[in-house]
Write a structure and sequence with these properties.
246 residues, alpha/beta, Rossmann fold, SIR2/SIRT2 'Small Domain', 2 domains, 6-stranded parallel beta sheet, 3-stranded antiparallel beta sheet, 9 strands, 36% helix, 19% strand
Length: 246
């Protein structure tokens, strides 16, 4: 860690009242959550892109749910790390703090975060297409594959935004609103490649916010960020907190 850059970033955050954090797969990878894309996402002979689509679910819902059941089993063994814990604590530190995440694993909520915008949904929730209802389901393994709605008997689907589907308009709309209203945006563990999430830091900066990047590797956001901190979130975020509140 670069102590001077940590101090610079902490100085930006210290007097901020409106802070937004945007998190991606990197913070969850530190807790052992697989990325599920590329070679890490291979299950049997299928890739994530083969299964996480409306077409795959319509064709073979049992197969899709078997894959999600496997994923849920892997994620169930993971715990929030110190990066998750720091972001949860910041809800009571900054007068206005919003957490926007691209992750579906639910680790932010387990760490204690409450004001969360989940851009891509949540793997621990199921949705009934007929009742238009969303409910929690933390069964590992699932009691029934594919699960059915207890109210109407329809097939439930994972509450996940699949490839080819738009993000929830209300969720992404609020994400852009909070970003544009922020004084500081902290971008943690994201490749800054997947849109529209990758546009959120630019929206914040266009409105005058400072952008602090936390990532082990450079990204397209690095040269654009006010401060770019190299390292894992589990080390960098607690270091920032210690500098803000020594």
């Amino acid at each position: 860690m670069d102590d001077e850059l940590i101090a610079e970033a902490a100085g930006i955050l210290k007097n901020a009242k409106r802070v937004v954090a945007l998190t991606g797969a990197g913070i969850s990878a530190e807790s052992g959550v697989p990325t599920f894309r590329g070679k890490d996402g291979l299950w049997r002979q299928f890739r994530a892109e083969d299964l996480a689509t409306p077409e795959a679910f319509a064709r073979d819902p049992k197969l899709v749910w078997e894959w999600y059941d496997w994923r849920r089993g892997l994620i169930a063994g993971c715990s929030p790390n110190a990066g998750h814990a720091t972001l949860a604590a910041w809800e009571s530190v900054f007068p206005r703090f919003t957490l926007i995440t691209q992750n579906v694993d639910g680790l932010h909520a387990l760490a204690g975060s409450k004001n969360i915008l989940e851009l891509h949904g949540n793997i621990w929730k199921v949705r009934c297409p007929s009742e238009h209802s969303v409910s929690d389901n933390r069964d590992v393994p699932l009691a029934e594959i594919p699960p059915r709605c207890p109210a109407c008997g329809a097939l439930l689907r994972p509450h996940i935004v699949w490839f080819g589907e738009p993000l929830d308009r209300a969720v992404i709309g609020r994400a852009f609103e909070e970003s544009a209203a922020s004084e500081v945006m902290v971008v943690v563990g994201t490749s800054a490649l997947v849109h529209p999430a990758a546009s959120l830091p630019h929206s914040a900066a266009d409105a005058g916010a400072a952008v602090i990047e936390v990532n082990p590797d450079p990204t397209p956001l690095t040269t654009f960020a006010t401060v770019s901190l190299r390292g894992p979130a589990g080390l960098i975020l607690p270091a920032l907190e210690r500098e803000i509140h020594p």
